Amino acid sequence: MSGFLDGIRCGDCECNVDWGERRNTIASVAAGVLFFTGWWIIIDAAVKYPEEGTFHHAYHTCGVIATVAFLMINAVSNGQVRGDSYSEGCIGQTGARVWLFIGFMLAFGSLIASMWILFGGFVVPQKPIVYPGIAVFFQNAFIFFGGLVFKFGRTEDLWQ
User: Fold this and answer.
1) How distant, in Å, are the alpha carbons of 34, 56, 76, 91, 124 from that of 101?
2) Are the C-beta atoms of residues 132 and 49 closer than 8 Å to each other?
3) What is the pLDDT of residue 83?
4) What SS3 state is found at 16?
5) CA distances from 28 to 76, 106, 117 (A)
6) Cβ atoms 21, 144 nearer than 8 A
7) Residue 41: how many other CB atoms lie within 10 Å
8) Global pTM value
9) 3-state DSSP call for residue 115?
10) What pLDDT digit, counting tens, does each position of 68-95 carry?
11) pLDDT digit string (tens) for 91-115?
12) How far is Cα 23 from Cα 43, in angstroms, rounded to an integer?
């Protein structure tokens, strides 16, 4: 999955842009847009439905956990997980793998919890206003996919 931008062609234009060189930039911008969009959606829902009965303020916890997971997943490089560039420290490669695993668990957990909030809090009780539940789900989905794009869309070969 890391090489999906290597063979991209820009149609029949003669622009001769080497997308492989700009891969980290494109992945970083795409991940930032996804992350921003997720938080923008939940801020919109919080502003539109400020009362506690319509949109419970505890629902923001999923987005905060997804953000922490985003940071945890991207704090560990692929080289550290493989053991290529990380041989020192108190727990080394195993610690990097455990850290990444906990980050992915938090990310999947927040995504599943947002689905629970959407269906358990808004769809099944047949509330007339469902947008806050949809906003919580899309916030977590955008943050989750932004984290995946930022982790696996970039390459570490350009760093050396």
Assistant:
1) 22, 30, 11, 15, 32
2) yes
3) 77
4) coil
5) 16, 21, 29
6) no
7) 21
8) 0.84
9) helix
10) 999 999 998 888 888 776 566 667 788 8
11) 778 888 999 999 999 999 999 999 9
12) 30
